[in-house]
Amino acid sequence: MSRFLKIYTPFTKAGVQISMTYRFNFFCFLLGEMLKCFIMFFLWKAVFESSGGNSFMGFSMTDMTVYIFITFLSGYLTYSEGAYAVGEEIRDGSIAMRMIKPVSFDMTFLFQEIGNKMLIVAVVLAPICIGVELYKYFATGAFMFQPLNFVLFLLSVIIAYLISFYFNVCYGFLAFFLKNLWGSNILKEVIVDFLSGATIPLAFMPQVLRDVLTFLPFSSLSYTPVMIYMGIYSVEKSLALIALQLFWLFAFWLISKGIWKAAVKRLAVQGG
What we know:
- The chain is 77% helix and 1% strand.
- The protein has helices spanning 2-21, 23-51, 61-78, 82-92, 95-100, 105-140, 147-172, 175-178, 182-195, 207-215, 223-229, 235-264; strands spanning 55-56, 59-60.
- It has a two-stranded antiparallel ribbon.
């Protein structure tokens, strides 16, 4: 383990340095995401008001507000640029340097992204959670925070991030065959946002569709962690869904290894 950490810790340090170097970009991106949250808030507020009641599909406006901001938090923590990073290195040929180094290609990407995530965790996690809890208290007179739910939420978010990372690495490997993933990557993110419940809660879907989407890996990226945090799932169901997350994590890890071995055989480098 000490040898493993000695090899990959420099990649984490490099990720931290990159995130600190581009602090302005980070805060601009954060501001943009927060604006999206407020847009979603006013959109759903209009939906609730037009429905003529205090609840919509089992959600109160307070629940929906909490859902919007915890979804933002979960999405921000689990977002991975693996597809972009892998795709760019394949496109410009720098992926060849990783192939000749005696290190795991996925671990180098992963530990560098973990370094990037440290700034996000430090800046975003506590303020959003505290803000949501204060909002819930002033709206209902009670805090939502439950220590066990929060621990399960953090565990679910960590696994969700790893699923997102390996899914995006798998997607990034398509650059071996498609050369440029910029346009398709945008389409992929829109589809994943919808399937994960980030755009519309899966609870609003028809029962059959909801069951299917809950089983698919995309709900693990957003909907599962958010439902756990909000205390909507029992401990037993939360653990069952975390086990499902582990299944999808193993599946995407296995797929990424298989694609890497197949793709290396037909490596075609563009641009150098």
